[in-house]
Amino acid sequence: MLLAALLSLVTLATATDENPVRSVEYAPLPPSDPDTSDPSFVIGEVIASEFDRHVPALSDNLRGELSLLRNEITRQFDSLKHHMDTKLDRMQRDAPEDIYQVEEKVLETPKPATPAATIRHNLAMAELRRLGAELTTAMNEEVNKLREEFRTSLDHLREQVHNSSETLATRLENEFVTQTEESTTMLKKVFFLTRNQMDLILTQLGNITSALQGEEKQHRPSQTTAELPSQQALHQETTEAPQPLLGPVTTTTPPTTTTEPEDLPRDCYESLLAGGNHSGVISIRPSADMESKRVWCDQSVDGGGWTVMLRRQPQEVQLDFRQPWQAYSEGFGRPDGEYWIGLETLYRLTKGNPYTLRVDMTWEDESATSLYDYFSVGPSRYGRRGYELNVGGYNKSSTGGDAMEYHNGMDFSTYDEDNDGASGGSCSEWSGGGGWWYNYCFYSNPTGIYPPQDLPPSTQVDHLLEWRKWQGYYTYLSSLHMMIRPN
Hints:
Elements: H1 2-13, H2 39-94, H3 115-218, H4 228-233, H5 268-273, E1 280-284, E2 293-298, E3 306-312, H6 325-330, E4 332-333, E5 339-340, H7 343-350, E6 355-363, E7 366-377, E8 380-381, E9 385-386, E10 389-394, H8 427-430, E11 444-445, E12 466-467, H9 468-471, E13 479-486
Antiparallel strand pairs: 1-2, 2-3, 3-5, 3-13, 4-5, 6-7, 6-13, 7-10, 8-9, 11-12
């Protein structure tokens, strides 16, 4: 009976091949209607599928380890059982005939056992109990060992799943951020192109309106000939003093030839296409209703065609960039030295045609470049606001870092027109008095104070010419050139 009970204990404590250890099953989440566009939901779904993919293999490993433990317990049990059988056989051989009958008959009147037989019987029962206790202890130890190893394996499984989930989540997060940046850049591109197309349509509508108004004027009575000299005088440049009119002008006056506007290129790229392949100062006309503008053309960098919009460099007398709003709107400086091209010129150049922006800079004996695929400037508003910056498509092969994205979408600010994102003060005043598309306040300050060798004691480090995404905060530049070319 005791042996059968022990055998049942072993059978219950160990799993058989017909009942292998099952893998951990997780109850499904309650049904819901999640937003599949939510990044956290997408990452959770991918992690769950990855978990389901790894769990069967890990469960097979646990099943193999449990099978080995089950075989070891069976081996220990067989050894103890063989030892007990041997002891019982020995006890039967040593037992007297009056206690264990050899024949298959029962004595009606058994003889009383002798003291020696009783002692042997008691010793055998004590040995049997000892063996049973040893078997029970061994079984408990093996079961505890099995339970501990199973718990260790389960913890190892959890750790593997956790590490896999963290790695997968990090990789998915990085991919999500990259896709988000690319999507944002594409949306900005579409936005810029759409807005530029709208500006172009408005311009064409204006031209059509002007043409219609011109046709109406042709059907009106012609003006008197006395008005012609005064109109022609508005388009002619002369150094002679105007002669007083002594009487009405007759139609016999020889006709004056009206000089056509000088055929100037729209920018340095058109000049390059027309054969101007040498760098230097030329005159351009960004739009037909603008006066000509003197600019520096760089025809040597990356195929040429670059119109320099801002230049900062060492020269005998540094140009003061602490200028009012009107100066930044019209432009100032000399194109063959330090200068600012002017906000109105930038608006007319980039209207309906986004440009590529190139920023070349040096710091002591080092140099770097930052490239942007899209750059344009919006129109002026109310004479003291506007000229909104639109920049994007930072080229990751650049070496200077992206110090323009922070300023994207901002109106232009000067010390006398505060349009920045800071409240309670002027970023222009805090940054040296120059004009820029300040936010709160800047990552780039190209119009800051150019640092001479001996700075005045009152000059603060954040007033200087900076591009913080390259050399860090409070590190001035030795030179900076900003150039644009049609995209």
